[in-house]
Amino acid sequence: MLEGAQIIGFDWKYKYVNDALIKHSKYTREELLGYTVQEKYPGIENTPTWQLYIRCFEKREAFHVENHFTFPDGSSGWFELSFQPIPDGIFILSIDITERKNIEEQLRQLNLELEDKVEQRTAQLAAVNKELEAFSYSVSHDLRAPLRAINGFSDMLINRYQQTLDTEAKRLLGVIKTNALNMGQLIDDLLSFSRTGRKEVQPTLADMQSLIQSVIRELTQNEPYKAAYITIHTLPKALCDMQLMRQVWLNLISNALKYTSKKEKPEIEISAIQNENETTYCIKDNGAGFDMLYADKLFGVFQRLHSPKEFEGNGVGLALVHRIISKHEGKVWAESEPDKGAAFYFTLKQ
Known about the structure:
The chain has nine helices and twelve strands. By secondary structure, the protein is an alpha+beta fold. It has three domains: about 5-95, Beta-Lactamase; about 100-200; about 205-350, 2-Layer Sandwich (Heat Shock Protein 90). It has a five-stranded antiparallel sheet with strand order 2-1-5-4-3. A five-stranded mixed sheet has the order 7-9-10-12-11. The longest helix has about 60 residues, at about 100-160. The chain starts with a strand and ends with a strand.
């Protein structure tokens, strides 16, 4: 038997021990049989283990415990003990679980160390977030001031010296104003990207159909997007952060409108496929498309597959979409061919 077995009589003397118990006890069979527990383990009367013997002897109860035992030589071990009253006294079955307990203790220590590291990293992350907030504040206020000055002085030059400025000078001032406005928009987009990373997801049951229609109404108020033919299939509701999901659709639909704007008959189709675990949403267009060779760059900040001369933009919108869908524990990807349109997909859990 791997389990230690011992019988102790009412006189507290060992009556039977097997080979496994001899190994557990650190005594020979001759050193145990005929001797009392108190003789072999002096001072045991003052330990919690003694109460286990008393319980079985006096109350005649059977029970199962894990016990930490200290030997006369100062060493210790953990044993799983089953006490059973028998006519001759008590029977004890023991299993040495010292190794298991040591491993459990090591795991406990590792968990404590891990928790400590997590607390440290959390504190570091909180400090970084504060720095980012300070940076965002600086960007929002300090960088906007010179841009406003550039725009203001450009307007003053145009208004005051309109009669004396030649065509080239007016064109150059127009370029200055346009670039200042683009820089302002880039700042807005970067701030939005930064805020999205810190924002906690607050899921609600969103009506995707209504949300998309609202976004389309907002976007198609401006030319040249009014001519696009948009088909919206029946879309299931989704458990998501309404504000963040509005930003996703705003970016995806505005991209589809932008990249189909040069088509004679721009078409956009929005659909969804639902299964037990998740819903996959898709927005497909017949616009400019792109080469899938560069698809890995789509969702990076400042990554663009078309030049600003072809289509305006700063390469933040799709990075924002990727961040929001990732915060919802979903996936986002795209399929396309040059001049044959593009299809963007993202998933949301049920």
